[in-house]
């Protein structure tokens, strides 16, 4: 059952997280498999003469959210609602909160956010809307709130808030991740280690299409000096970062830039009747001889891994090996879809080796080659042949793996 956690954050401030733990969701954005669930984080800050709500939650959890919110404050007392990003996982409860608030609160966001909110929920939600520009500051409850645009993290509407005196960054999607961590913040290293792979998966599936903007925007925040000095980074999903805040943005930078883990080679293949699998056995044997650490995902008649999990592995791989059958004069459907998403969401300059098998005519290898050469990936070689691999095929595969490994080094 979804539940909501309300906790005071690790500070002397009157600052609370209202975290909805969504364990019912299966497909984020109706696409990405996340059996691990997700959280939607909103924050409430009580100041002198002001009560500020940072983002809300998904519409279907509005009742749950309102009950939690009312334990902290009478909604009528909320003076400001900051909308960092309008995607409905953060803005879905806004209309009801404003209704309960009597439309007294000033809603703050970018011009783009205003337009989107109006389009999603009608005129009423924007009748008391304050448009802020990149870098603009406002005094609220005796504190300085600086609003910084971070377009495409995740939509063009997106901004973060920096509370200058307290050195707090409210970052919405930026800094977020999938799963429902058992802790609220990063104080337990075991929790953080378990959580970070879900952050990589989140980054690629949700923001991956715009990953160059991750690097650009974090560079911008670093140049403003606020990443180094931040006492907390408070995202809209997953863990709040109190112990080592800059760590999450550094992790985002790494994923955004596709910084590889030493020796990790991602191997993805389908095998309907074992022809491709036989080739992959040769590939894995050669990789291991060369000291590489393959991470393998396979589609067979017994298993089908989540494409979202595969995508999360791409940024940290040194190289990719794609094994594919030719299927009705096409790439096998599961590999076709997986590759389409890799090229769209995890498009990095990394070397790729293609290993294919066919019955009466090889098509998959050529088609994959075309996809790869049109992307940022580097095509190293294609080795494709009929049925089970002959000893000659085996030597060609081993040679191609050696070429790939040489390419990496
Ligand atoms: Fe978590 Fe782009 O919304």
Explain what this protein looks like in three dimensions.
By secondary structure, the chain is an alpha/beta fold. It folds into 2 domains: 3-257, Metallo-beta-lactamase, Chain A; 264-408, 3-Layer(aba) Sandwich (Rossmann fold), CATH 3.40.50.360. Helix content is 35%, strand content 26%. It is built from 13 helices and 19 strands. The strands form 4 sheets. Strands 1-2-5-6-7-8-9 form a 7-stranded mixed beta sheet. It has a 5-stranded mixed beta sheet with strand order 10-11-12-13-14, with no helix packed on it. The longest helix has 19 residues, at 189-207. The radius of gyration is 24 Å and the shape is elongated. The termini are far apart. The mean pLDDT is 97. The protein binds MU-OXO-diiron (FEO). MU-OXO-diiron (FEO) binds at residues 85, 87, 89-90, 154, 173, 236-237.
In short:
By secondary structure, the chain is α/β, with parallel strands linked by helices. The chain has 13 helices and 19 strands.
Layout of helices and strands:
Elements: E1 3-8, E2 15-22, E3 27-28, E4 32-33, E5 38-47, E6 50-54, H1 62-72, E7 80-82, H2 88-91, H3 94-101, E8 106-109, H4 111-121, E9 129-131, E10 137-140, E11 143-149, E12 159-163, E13 168-172, H5 189-207, H6 211-223, H7 226-229, E14 232-235, H8 246-257, E15 264-270, H9 275-289, E16 293-299, H10 307-313, E17 319-325, H11 333-345, E18 351-358, H12 364-373, E19 378-386, H13 391-408
Parallel strand pairs: 6-7, 7-8, 8-9, 13-14, 15-16, 15-17, 17-18, 18-19
Antiparallel strand pairs: 1-2, 2-5, 3-4, 5-6, 10-11, 11-12, 12-13
Helix pairs in contact: 5-8, 5-10, 6-8, 9-13
Bound molecules: MU-OXO-diiron.
Residues 85, 87, 89-90, 154, 173, 236-237 line the site of MU-OXO-diiron.
Organism: Thermococcus peptonophilus
InterPro entries: Flavodoxin/NO_synth (IPR008254), Flavoprotein-like_sf (IPR029039), Metallo-B-lactamas (IPR001279), ODP_dom (IPR045761), RibonucZ/Hydroxyglut_hydro (IPR036866), Rubredoxin-O_OxRdtase (IPR016440)
Protein name: MBL fold metallo-hydrolase
């Amino acid at each position: 059952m979804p539940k909501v956690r309300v906790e005071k954050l690790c500070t002397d401030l009157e600052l609370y997280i209202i975290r909805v733990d969504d364990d019912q969701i299966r497909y984020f954005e109706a696409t990405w498999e996340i059996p691990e669930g997700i959280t939607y984080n909103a924050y409430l800050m009580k100041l002198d003469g002001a009560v500020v709500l940072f983002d809300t939650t998904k519409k279907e959890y509005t009742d749950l959210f309102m009950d939690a919110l009312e334990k902290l404050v009478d909604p009528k007392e909320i003076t400001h609602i900051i909308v960092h990003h309008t995607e409905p996982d953060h803005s879905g409860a806004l209309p009801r909160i404003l209704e309960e608030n009597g439309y007294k609160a000033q809603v703050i966001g970018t011009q783009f956010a205003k337009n989107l909110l109006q389009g999603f929920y009608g005129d009423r939600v924007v009748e008391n809307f304050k448009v802020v520009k990149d870098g603009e500051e406002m005094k609220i409850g005796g504190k300085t709130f600086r609003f910084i645009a971070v377009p495409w993290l995740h939509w063009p509407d997106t901004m973060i808030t920096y509370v200058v005196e307290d050195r707090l960054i409210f970052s919405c999607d930026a800094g977020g991740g999938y799963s429902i961590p058992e802790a609220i913040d990063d104080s337990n290293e075991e929790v953080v280690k378990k959580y970070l792979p879900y952050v990589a998966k989140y980054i690629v599936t949700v923001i991956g299409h715009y990953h160059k903007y991750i690097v650009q925007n974090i560079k911008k925040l670093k140049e403003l000096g606020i990443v180094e000095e931040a006492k907390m980074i408070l995202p809209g999903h997953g863990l709040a970062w109190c112990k080592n805040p800059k760590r999450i943005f550094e992790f985002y930078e790494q994923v955004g830039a596709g910084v590889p883990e030493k020796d990790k080679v991602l191997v993805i293949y389908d095998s309907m009747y074992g022809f491709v699998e036989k080739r992959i056995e040769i590939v894995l044997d050669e990789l291991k001889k060369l000291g590489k650490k393959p991470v393998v995902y396979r589609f067979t008649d017994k298993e089908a891994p989540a494409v979202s999990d595969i995508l999360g592995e791409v940024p940290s791989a040194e190289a990719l090996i794609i094994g594919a059958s030719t299927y009705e004069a096409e790439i096998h459907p599961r590999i076709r879809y997986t590759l389409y998403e890799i090229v769209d969401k995890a498009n990095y300059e990394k070397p790729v080796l293609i290993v294919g098998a066919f019955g009466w005519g090889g098509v998959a290898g050529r088609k994959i080659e075309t996809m790869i050469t049109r992307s940022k990936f580097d095509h190293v070689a294609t080795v494709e042949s009929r049925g089970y691999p002959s000893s000659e095929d085996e030597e060609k595969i081993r040679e191609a793996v050696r070429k790939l490994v040489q390419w990496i080094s």
